[in-house]
Amino acid sequence: MADDVRGRRIAAMRGCDRLLSGVRPATVRERLAELTAVAGPELMPDYYGDGLVGDLEERVARLLGTPAAVYFPTGTMAQQVALRYGAEVTGRRAVALHPLGHQEVHERRAYADLTGLRSVHPTTAPRNPTAAEIAALDEPVGTVVFELPLRDAGFVLPGWAELAEAAGVARAAGARVHFDGARLWESAPYLGRGPAEIAGLADSTYVSFYKTLGGLSGAAVAGTDDFAGYARAWRHRHGGQLFQQWPAVLSALAGIERELPLVPEYVRHARVVAAGLAKLPGAVVFPQPPHTHQFRLWLPHPAARLNQATLALAEQEGVWFAGGWQDTELPGHAMAEISVQGPALEWSAGDVLETGLRLLDRIQDRAAG
Asked: Are residues 280 and 339 in the same domain?
């Protein structure tokens, strides 16, 4: 049943003329055509991390203003290595993490189960830790992790001065600073600094190529030459020294060229979309205004009805609103994550409100029937 719903959703999104949240799913043939267009006629595949992989690593290092960057097939692998490095160079096995952080929620606590580290939580508030909270830790930690933005708190960011102060306090306490920057690219407009200046606050920074940039997969960690050498050794030990990775690497390079320049516009337009959504009956938008091009929307209806109405609107009218609705701890309310990308740029706040009202009409008609 789940596969049937997923198949209908993909088919519906592909058939839509307009999409508010997300992008139109591409077929394998379409993705291959994209890669062929990027690759020159004489371009050769990589072999165990040379060639194209090295080109991408150099590009990321330049973007982040670091001496080196190392490509990884997954972010989970990359972050394990970064935290292990912090433990070894400081002699401290504890890591300061947020309980809503990606390592805790989405990586099956790999840093602990595979690397033998343990976490301490500077705060449980739905935001990154402050300088005062880091200073108040009652034991030394090897690494302090900041997730930019903190996705499971609603894609929220600290202010620049707050982030700089917290990073400075962590370093003064003898800890390394690691930025989980899977969404670093879209954090730059809110922080008011470019990626290199942001990464300059940290000892290591992780970035993703498939989130926002639209790559097939893959990630990188950036930092000093010593850190990069360590990361390459442990990438191999973790099984990340793949024979060839050119499809993912080509798609990452394409994303840097095509999508990265558009990210500031996505972030700006997210405020327009959020303003339209906030006018829907009973809607809650958080944060308002959004910090990045992604944010959360609550509506006072069960998730099942919202998902059904979204799919029906797409199949019957060729308009995709927002999917992935989930019931929440607030009775009768469901939440969806909104991602404003290229297709959403043509939507005005009025368009958003009008389409949202049509979606809600479908739910009310179904309930009345």
From this structure: yes
Say what angle helices 303-317 and 349-368 make with each other, to 10 degrees: 110
> For residue 79, how many other CB atoms are within 10 A of its CB?
26
Residues 232 and 100 in one domain: yes
CATH number where 208 lies: 3.40.640.10
DSSP 324: -
**Which strand (E) or helix (H) includes residue 88?**
helix 75-90
Contact 150, 135 (CB under 8 A): no
Is 37 part of a structural domain of the chain?
A: no
| Strand-pair category, 143-147 with 94-96 | parallel
Enter the tokens of residue 332. Answer: 């009768």
- What share of the chain has pLDDT > 70, as a percent? 98
178 vs 181, 269, 315, CA distance in Å?
9, 29, 44
Which CATH number covers residue 341? 3.90.1150.10
Percentage of the chain exceeding pLDDT 90: 94
What does the pLDDT average to over 35-40? Answer: 90
Same domain for 17 and 165: no
Tell me how far CA of residue 26 lies from CA of 30, 121, 122, 236, 265, in angstroms: 6, 40, 41, 32, 23
Tokens representing residue 100 in the block: 């809503």
Q: Which of 215, 243, 271 is the last residue of a domain?
A: 243
254 lies in a domain? Answer: no
pLDDT tier at 23 (50, 70, 90 boundaries)? Answer: very high
Mean pLDDT across 93-102: 97
Q: How confident is the model at residue 194 (pLDDT cuts 50, 70, 90)?
A: very high
Query: What is the band of 135 on the pLDDT scale with cuts at 50, 70, 90?
Result: very high
Residue 184 belongs to a domain: yes
Against a cut of 0.90, is the pTM above it?
Answer: yes
For residue 249, tell me if it sits in a domain.
no
